Amino acid sequence: MSSQEVILHHFDASPFAEKVRVALGIKELSWRSVEIPMVMPKPDLTALTGGYRKTPVMQIGADVFCDTQRIATELNDLGAGPSLFPGDNQGLCAVIAAWSDASLFIPGAGLAMGTNQDLPEAILADRFAFFDFLDRKSLPQQLPSLFARFRAGLQRIEDMLADERSFLLGDTVSWADASCYAPVWMCRSNIAHADELMKNLPLLEAWEQRMKAFGHGRPTVMKASEALKISSSTHSLARPLLDVDAWPKLELDRVVTVTPEDYGAVPVRGRLVRLSQYDVAVARSDERAGEVVVHFPRAGYRVEGL
Ligand SMILES: N[C@@H](CCC(=O)N[C@@H](CS)C(=O)NCC(=O)O)C(=O)O
């Protein structure tokens, strides 16, 4: 067991986890798979993250990466396999991923909740509390407009492929493809009337098959207790960094909180290790996880000195 293995904390039905699983497939990586609960509490996960509960989270040794945006850049920096940002298109990929999260995942989450009669009450109750953009009472009335938003988003993917290119940025697959594929995958598996929604989108369907063919790399199961053993017996490899033009103006080692600016806004508290235009990281200590550094993307997170 190597302390530098990629460990993904996730569950099968998560579309955000699917983005990362596909990225691991593109890179043909071997990785360890820790299954986390679909609903709170998630004590083994939050021991690592300090409170962040979203899915997925990636761990490498004593470094814990929250949010698919941050996970993608870290996976890319590992250097193995093809780049997730071919042609140095990291900015473009990030913008397309953010568009997909807003225009496809948000209505898709509403449709998954609102059209799936079989979801257990425990999941419905957890998600309606978590997704503060969804109103349980009025959801049935919102369904037609959610279907319309989702279908309009799918059309954009079809349009991006209009010149019969293989992938969204051209001939080479990228993080933009993984990010847009995840809600399509969610639609097929979690949304009623998926076939109806996907009608008349031939380029999208062919692209979907190409994306599916990447698979998920080579996962092997790991228990959460093993992952905690790894974090507590290794040291973070994070290099401290404070960009001169980073906001807010804080010094390294200052105690801060980092909080998602959208839903699931649980603050994570720790000593500032990195603050740049791209990332923020805090060091924290946990009885079971040990001394860990928790990494977030800079965009979409509020950083506050205490
Ligand atoms: N911005 C986050 C969003 C992640 C997200 O919303 N994940 C959903 C699952 S697909 C989630 O956390 N659901 C609640 C949970 O798993 O507890 C990212 O890119 O990773």
Automatic annotation (TrEMBL):
Superkingdom assignment: Bacteria
UniProt GO molecular function: transferase activity
Segment forming the signal sequence: none
Domain (GST C-terminal) ranges: 93-241
Residue span(s) of domain GST N-terminal: 4-83
Matches recorded under Pfam families: GST_C_2, GST_N_3
Keyword line: Transferase
Record-linked InterPro entries: Glutathione-S-Trfase_C-like, Glutathione-S-Trfase_C_sf, Glutathione_S-Trfase_N, GST_Omega/HSP26, Thioredoxin-like_sf
GO CC, alphabetical: cytoplasm
Name of the molecule in the record: Glutathione S-transferase family protein
Species this protein is from: Seongchinamella unica
